[in-house]
Write a structure and sequence with these properties.
By secondary structure, the chain is an alpha/beta fold. Helix content is 40%, strand content 17%. The structure holds magnesium ion. The site of magnesium ion (MG) has 6 residues, from loops.
């Protein structure tokens, strides 16, 4: 399927680009969702390779785990995307889903070796052009917060294996906590799930200094909830870019209202690369 890039209001968008250009790369930082934003949404083999699903899909854990994780998905995913539940109830159900999944991982006595084994199968892939974005940001010392409600251990192992980690790239996510022989016995709290990303604070001792004085933001996400990442902070200019991967006809209007730019059908990062080129020439 062909992908296209749709700019909701070209006049406003040009104004924002000019503001970003004038302020320069030292005023800019990025927040990006990980799964199906920095990575591809679709794979030729039909698999679903996200940080939340990779352990289930790659078969590095017991068949019982995979079966249980699939049951959880079938139970909770319809609630996640339903319009019939109110937000409070939905959020409670999401916490229930994430908690049950992580409890199941602890039962499996999961270790870092499992994550590496899953990543080594090369199932998960960057969206075309993501690596070039990461290089540019590193080169211009522009911080990137990868902000994920998935499993940070999977993401961190992936980034490490792809050799793209650098001191301007930071990961905000859910992580396992390991004992002294490297077996997970707990996980970080509060859980970041798909519906509460806007409540997570961005100020953090590890990268707070890097973003403190930067008032321009480029945000990348594929979920409507991603558009609210980092909103509990003040900005001069924000450009939101949304990747609309599914059911384009029905979702396009809503995405156009939520994001400044919409890239459909798992399209490449070309537009984002060109935008960065303009701001940090
Ligand atoms: Mg996503």
């Amino acid at each position: 399927m062909n992908s296209s890039t749709i700019i909701g209001n070209n006049q406003i968008f040009q104004k924002k680009i000019n503001a970003l250009k004038n302020d320069g790369p030292d005023s800019l930082f990025l927040i990006a969702d990980f799964d199906r934003t920095l990575t591809r949404a679709w794979y030729e083999d039909g698999g679903v390779y996200t940080s939340a699903s990779l352990l289930r899909e790659s078969g590095v854990l017991s068949p019982q785990f995979s079966q249980y994780a699939t049951e959880l998905y079938n139970t909770y995913r319809p609630i996640e995307i339903s319009n019939e539940w109110n937000l409070k109830e939905k959020e409670m159900k999401m916490i229930e889903w994430w908690t049950k999944s992580y409890q199941a991982l602890l039962q499996e006595k999961i270790s870092r070796a499992h994550f590496q084994e899953a990543i080594n199968q090369n199932l998960m892939q960057f969206r075309l052009g993501t690596e070039s974005i990461l290089e540019k940001l590193d080169h211009h010392h522009i911080p990137l917060l990868v902000f994920s409600a998935g499993l940070g251990d999977v993401i961190d192992t992936f980034l490490e294996t792809q050799q793209v980690k650098n001191k301007y790239l930071h990961l905000i996510s859910n992580f396992m906590i390991y004992d002294n022989i490297g077996i997970a016995f707990n996980y970080t709290q509060p859980i970041i799930h798909s519906l509460n990303k806007h409540t997570s604070p961005l100020e953090n001792p590890t990268y707070g200094n890097q973003i403190r004085n930067r008032k321009n933001l480029i945000l990348l996400g594929d979920h409507l909830g991603d558009a609210r990442m980092g909103e509990n902070r003040e900005y001069d200019t924000v450009i939101k870019i949304g990747f609309l991967n599914d059911d384009v006809d029905n979702n396009l209007e809503l995405y156009k209202k939520t994001f400044d730019v919409v890239i459909t059908n798992d399209g490449p990062m070309d537009f984002v690369n060109e935008l960065l080129q303009k701001v940090a020439a």
